[in-house]
Amino acid sequence: MTDPHWQQGSLVELEITGLSNSGEGLGRFQERVVFVPDTVTGDRVLVRLVRVKQQYAQGQLQEIISPSAHRVRPPCIVADKCGGCQWQHIDETFQRESKQQQIIDALERIGQFSDIPIAPLLATSQIFEYRNKSTYPLARSSEGQVQAGYYRPQSHKIINLNQCPVQDPRLNPLLAEVKQDIQNQGWSIYDETERQGKLRHLALRIGRRTGEILLTLVSANPNLPGIEEQAQVWLERYPHLVGVTLNHQPNPTNLILGTETQLIAGMPYCREIFAGLQFNLRSDTFFQVNTETAELLWETILQQLNLQGWEQVIDAYSGVGTFTLPLAQKVESAIAIESNKSAVQQARENAEINHIENVQFLAGKVENVLPGLTQQTDMVILDPPRKGCDRRVIDTLCATRPKTLLYISCQPATLARDLKILCQEGGYRLTWVQGADFFPQTAHVECAVILQAS
What we know:
Layout: E1 11-19, E2 25-29, E3 32-36, E4 44-52, E5 56-66, H1 92-109, E6 118-122, E7 133-140, E8 146-151, E9 158-160, H2 172-185, E10 199-206, E11 213-219, H3 227-237, E12 241-248, E13 260-266, E14 270-274, E15 277-281, H4 291-305, E16 312-316, H5 324-328, E17 333-338, H6 341-353, E18 359-363, H7 366-369, E19 379-382, H8 391-400, E20 404-409, H9 412-424, E21 428-436, E22 446-453
Parallel strand pairs: 3-5, 6-21, 11-12, 16-17, 16-19, 17-18, 19-20
Antiparallel strand pairs: 1-2, 1-4, 2-3, 4-5, 7-8, 7-10, 8-9, 10-11, 12-13, 14-15, 20-22, 21-22
Helix pairs in contact: 1-9
């Protein structure tokens, strides 16, 4: 017989007893799990069940009956509507405790590790105004006004923003004013349902150390009358704006950027200083959005590695050389593997800018390139996407057994999965685990680990 309380639309009272990896509060009703966004451990809440399965449900917060001691007032007035942040309602200390526990839980449950050698979570004091890049989808309101912002959770409805508390505050004036310029130009906005219109996204990027800003418009159609003149107006209006580019993305996919980017005015990149080196960041460059915390993690890693200068290193998933190039200054030689050809070219340019000559750059998928390398290797760096390493990469490492592996991950679950294989089948020992809070106000956590061959 169906439980009348366990069905869509029912109101239930819950105590939130934990947080999920995606940032939602977890409560239990009649031994079934209920996921409730915008809650925190310790909240007593009234919840409406909106998606109901046999053993779990998604809930929608209706009322906070008694708030948790970890609950704070969000500084952003749309924090409960915008999908950009999940955790503005949670105090700083508990956010970090929860991220540390997320790493431990994944390593214990998925990796089957015990006595985990985990260091205290790394974080800077800046829990807002840290993002060096923001990409906003564009839309029109029912009144025809151009909007830019983040989507509501579980929807494609934009919450219009004129500022964002987690992005570098030097970007806020552009967010508010560029929307109005787009409105005045009369450029059409892309409608993903009808697949008509032009402008899709506004992307802003800043070099935290240089203050240089790059503005990119993403358009389904690159024909924007008056774009050159408007770009010159922007360059004159914003002293720190160094370039305006136009990215062409005609395909009806969720990929934000297309493969072609046109320089409209100024430079096609902004400069950033990381680990004492200069990096040129283009619109399509992957670079950690939290410069300061990424640098703090890198300094901590270097201390743990205690490099002697004679090491030969492979950096897999090397991107534009963010870690490869600082590392190359500490070792005899490095090989950088990256599947994105544009990133490889950018890495070569960054190496040339910084007069680094002991890196060999290889374009190709790591699972295809790594097995063919015959050079002696003392250490391999792994920094894969969220899905983790391809099994062929893990098998190659288990077979060749470099002395040291450094694995940097943005997804504790796939990290734990890969570490389990490396330790159980490859004979590695997990000797150091370091979490880092790259994304305050969200549930995301970065993690670096060191493995040593037994």
